[in-house]
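Duplicate of #3305? Posting structure anyway:
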C-alpha cells in the first residue's frame, strides 16, 4: 500500500502531526507510521537563486552590470538548511510514497515554502492540502478528515511566486544600483521604502507644525463644572482672540445660570472585536512595550509550543460560522485561574454572537486570534507569554458577555445667552467590562442635583487658553496602524489604488510588518529616541536618492491588486513579471542618471586595519559597531552590545563594551564590571535560586488552585528568565 508524505513547515508542528497520525518510527528528518510519513521544512529550505548563479560577473557589484534580468529565475537550496532539504527530498522520492500532503502554514507564504521544495526536488506526485487554523490534536484530526485537493491552491502559489520574483527584480536591482552609485550600503524595497517615507513625512509635519492658540470657557455652577459650547456648531474652541475676549467680558457680568435642559440617555457599549495580529501587536506595545517582532515570536510559541491560541498571522477580527460549535469547548479550556469565574459566566450566558464577531464574508484564510480547545497550564507560560495570552483570553471571553450599560445625564445651562454643558455617567450593568474590572472601572459619582428651569448662583467663569498640538512621532504601535491603513499618506494618488490598498490590508502583510520594521532598524535607516521612531541621516538621504514611485504606498497597491488577480486566476503571472522587469530596468536607469550625492555623517577618526579608510560608526537597536566606509572592503568591528543583563545597583540594562577577555559591562548610573566578574557573581546567585523547572514542577502540582499563592509570588520575584 502506498503511503502519504506529510510536509510540515517546522519540526514542532511535524512532531505534533506525527503523534496524531500515530507515526512513531524516527528517521533522519522524518517520522514514519503505517500510512503516513511526516517530514518538515525549517521555514524556507529553497529560495530564489543569488545573482552570481546566473553569471559570475554578478559576484562583484558594478553599476555597469545593471539591470540584472535573468529569466526565468531559478531556485536554490539554502546553505544553512541544506541537510534538511536533502532529508525531505529523499522521502519525497521514495517509491512507496503515492501522494504529498502539504501541511505548511495555511497562507500564501506557507504555500510557497512547500511548492518550492517540490519544484526544486522535481516531484510530480498528486498533492493534497491540510488547511487548519490551530495545531491542537482535535484540529489536526478534523483537518485530515477534510483534506483539500492541491489544485485548489495552484493560483495562490502562482501569486506567491510572482510576489517573490517581483521583489527580486525590483529590490535587488534598486539596492545594488543605489549602493554602487553612491558607494554606501543602501537598500530599498516596495514595502520598506514607503514605510520609511511615512516616518519621514510625519517628522516633516511635526517640524513644520505651527501651534495655534485657542480659547474656551469653564463655569462653576453650584460647585459643578460646565463647559462652554457654540450653539450652532457645538464647537468648544474659539480661535479668534477678539471674539473670545468679547465673550469673556460679556460673561463676567453674569451671576446666575439657568438650567435649560436635563436629559438622561440609556447607553450600551458592546465588547470590542476579536484580535487580528496587527491590533494585538499594537496593544502589546501600548500596554507592555513589546516590539512587533517580540509579540509575533511570543505568539508563535503560544500557537506552536503551547497550542493554546489559534493561527497568529491573521488579518481578520471575525470568526467563521463553522467555528461557533467549538466555542464552548474553548471557553472551558481557558476556564482556569484567574479566568475560571468569568469563563463560567460566559459559558452560562448562551448569548448569540452577532455579525460583529461571526461573519463568513470577513474571514479570508484565517479567523481572528482566539484560544484553542487545549487546556491552559498558566504556570508553564513565561512572563511575556502569559501577558499576551491574558490579552487574547479576556478579549475572547468578553465577546460572550452582555453589553456594558450606563445612564448618561446631560445638563445644559444658559449663562448670558450662551450655552454651557456638563455630563455625568452612572453605570447600570457592568456586562463585559467585568472581565477588566480590576483594570478599567472607576468609581462614579451620584447624579448631579439640579432642577430644570431653575436658576443657580454662578460661582465663577474663567477663560481658558491652550494651543493645538503637533502630531506625535511614530512608535511601533502607531507605525503598525499607519502601515495597515496608509490612506492619508497617499494624497493625490488614484482613488482606486487607495481602495485596493485598504482592501488588501495596507503596506506589507500582518506576517511581514514586524520584519519590515526590524529591517529598517538593522539597516540604520531608523532609530529609537525613547519610544519614538525617527529617521537617521542615512534614512533621510536614502529618500532623496530613491525614485519617487518607490516611496509611495501606491506601488504596493498596484502590485497587490495584480497579485490578487493572479490568485483568483484572472491574470497570468507571466504578464505581471514582464511588467516588473520593465519597471526594474526603469528604476536602475533613473538611479544611474541621478545627480545627487551621498554623504557619510558618521565618519570616525579610526582607520580600517585592512584598507586604511576611515571607519563609520553604525548604531542599531543591538548596539554600536565600526564599519569600513568602503563597501568592497567590508571590515567591521563591534564597539558595544546592548544586553538583557541588569545592573546590580539601579537594575537598568547593561551595555557590554570591548572584545575578548577585556570585555566590560557599563551602566548609565556609572557601574562598571568586568565580564569575568559578572559571570562569577551570577554563578553564585544561581546556586541560591530555584530553577525554572523547579517552579514549573511545583506549579503543576497545584492543578487549578489559584496561582497567586505566597510561594508562587515569591518564586516569581526571582526573575528566572533574566541573566
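Output from current build:
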Amino acid at each position: 500500500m502506498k503511503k502519504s508524505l506529510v510536509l510540515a513547515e517546522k519540526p514542532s508542528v511535524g512532531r505534533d502531526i506525527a503523534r496524531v497520525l500515530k507515526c512513531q518510527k524516527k528517521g533522519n528528518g522524518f517520522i514514519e507510521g503505517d500510512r503516513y510519513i511526516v517530514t518538515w521544512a525549517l521555514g524556507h529550505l529553497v529560495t530564489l537563486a543569488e545573482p552570481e548563479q546566473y553569471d559570475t560577473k554578478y559576484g562583484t557589484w558594478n553599476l555597469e552590470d545593471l539591470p540584472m534580468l535573468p529569466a526565468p529565475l531559478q531556485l536554490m537550496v539554502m546553505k544553512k538548511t541544506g541537510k534538511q532539504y536533502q532529508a525531505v527530498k529523499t522521502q519525497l522520492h521514495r517509491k512507496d510514497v503515492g501522494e504529498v500532503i502539504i501541511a505548511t502554514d495555511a497562507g500564501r507564504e506557507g504555500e510557497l515554502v512547500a511548492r518550492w521544495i517540490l519544484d526544486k526536488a522535481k516531484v510530480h506526485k498528486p498533492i493534497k492540502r491540510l488547511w487548519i487554523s490551530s495545531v491542537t490534536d482535535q484540529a489536526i484530526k478534523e483537518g485530515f478528515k477534510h483534506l483539500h485537493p492541491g489544485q485548489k491552491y495552484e493560483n495562490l502559489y502562482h501569486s506567491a511566486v510572482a510576489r517573490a520574483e517581483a521583489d527580486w527584480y525590483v529590490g535587488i536591482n534598486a539596492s545594488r544600483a543605489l549602493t554602487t552609485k553612491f558607494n554606501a550600503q543602501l537598500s530599498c524595497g516596495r514595502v520598506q521604502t514607503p514605510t520609511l517615507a511615512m516616518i519621514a513625512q510625519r517628522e516633516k509635519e511635526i517640524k513644520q507644525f505651527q501651534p495655534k492658540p485657542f480659547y474656551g470657557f469653564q463655569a462653576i455652577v453650584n460647585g459643578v463644572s460646565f463647559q462652554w459650547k457654540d450653539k450652532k456648531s457645538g464647537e468648544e474652541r474659539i480661535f479668534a482672540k477678539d471674539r473670545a475676549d468679547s465673550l469673556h467680558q460679556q460673561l463676567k457680568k453674569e451671576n446666575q445660570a439657568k438650567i435649560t435642559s436635563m436629559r438622561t440617555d440609556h447607553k450600551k457599549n458592546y465588547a470590542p472585536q476579536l484580535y487580528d495580529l496587527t491590533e494585538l501587536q499594537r496593544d502589546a506595545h501600548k500596554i507592555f512595550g513589546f516590539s512587533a517582532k517580540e509579540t509575533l515570536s511570543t505568539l508563535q510559541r503560544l500557537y506552536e509550543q503551547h497550542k493554546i491560541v489559534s493561527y497568529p498571522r491573521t488579518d481578520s477580527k471575525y470568526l467563521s460560522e463553522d467555528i461557533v460549535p467549538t466555542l464552548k469547548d474553548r471557553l472551558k479550556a481557558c476556564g482556569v485561574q484567574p479566568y475560571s469565574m468569568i469563563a463560567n459566566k460566559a459559558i452560562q450566558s448562551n448569548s448569540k454572537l452577532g455579525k460583529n464577531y461571526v461573519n463568513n464574508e470577513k474571514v479570508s484564510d484565517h479567523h481572528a486570534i482566539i484560544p484553542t480547545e487545549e487546556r491552559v497550564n498558566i504556570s508553564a507560560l513565561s512572563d511575556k507569554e502569559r501577558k499576551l495570552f491574558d490579552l487574547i483570553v479576556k478579549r475572547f471571553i468578553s465577546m460572550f458577555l452582555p453589553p456594558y450599560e450606563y445612564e448618561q445625564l446631560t445638563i445644559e445651562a444658559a449663562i448670558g445667552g450662551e450655552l454651557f454643558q456638563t455630563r455625568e455617567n452612572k453605570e447600570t450593568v457592568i456586562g463585559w467590562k467585568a472581565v477588566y474590572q480590576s483594570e478599567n472601572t472607576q468609581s462614579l459619582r451620584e447624579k448631579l442635583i439640579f432642577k430644570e428651569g431653575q436658576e443657580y448662583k454662578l460661582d465663577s467663569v474663567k477663560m481658558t487658553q491652550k494651543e493645538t498640538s503637533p502630531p506625535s512621532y511614530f512608535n511601533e504601535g502607531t507605525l503598525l496602524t499607519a502601515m495597515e491603513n496608509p490612506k492619508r499618506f497617499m494624497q493625490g494618488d488614484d482613488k482606486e489604488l487607495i481602495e485596493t490598498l485598504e482592501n488588501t490590508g495596507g503596506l506589507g502583510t500582518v506576517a511581514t510588518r514586524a520584519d519590515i520594521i526590524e529591517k529598517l532598524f538593522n539597516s540604520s535607516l531608523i532609530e529609537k529616541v525613547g519610544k519614538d521612531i525617527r529617521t537617521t541621516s542615512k534614512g533621510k538621504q536614502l529618500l532623496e536618492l530613491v525614485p519617487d514611485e518607490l516611496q509611495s504606498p501606491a506601488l504596493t497597491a498596484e502590485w497587490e491588486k495584480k497579485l490578487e488577480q493572479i490568485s483568483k486566476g484572472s491574470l497570468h503571472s507571466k504578464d505581471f513579471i514582464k511588467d516588473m522587469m520593465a519597471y526594474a530596468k526603469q528604476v536602475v536607469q533613473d538611479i544611474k542618471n541621478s545627480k545627487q550625492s551621498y554623504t557619510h555623517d558618521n565618519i570616525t577618526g579610526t582607520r580600517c586595519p585592512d584598507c586604511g579608510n576611515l571607519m563609520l560608526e553604525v548604531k542599531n537597536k543591538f548596539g554600536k559597531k565600526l564599519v569600513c566606509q568602503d563597501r568592497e572592503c567590508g571590515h567591521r568591528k563591534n564597539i558595544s552590545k546592548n544586553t538583557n543583563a541588569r545592573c546590580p545597583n539601579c537594575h537598568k540594562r547593561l551595555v557590554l563594551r570591548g572584545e575578548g577577555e577585556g570585555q566590560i559591562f557599563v551602566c548609565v548610573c556609572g557601574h562598571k564590571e568586568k565580564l569575568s566578574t559578572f559571570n562569577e557573581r551570577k554563578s553564585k546567585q544561581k546556586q541560591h535560586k530555584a530553577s525554572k523547572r523547579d517552579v514549573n514542577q511545583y506549579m503543576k502540582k497545584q492543578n487549578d488552585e489559584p496561582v497567586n499563592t505566597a510561594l508562587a509570588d515569591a518564586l516569581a520575584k526571582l526573575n528566572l528568565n533574566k541573566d
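Confirmed duplicate; merging threads. The CA atoms of residues 21 and 36 lie 7 Å apart. The longest helix spans residues 154-182.
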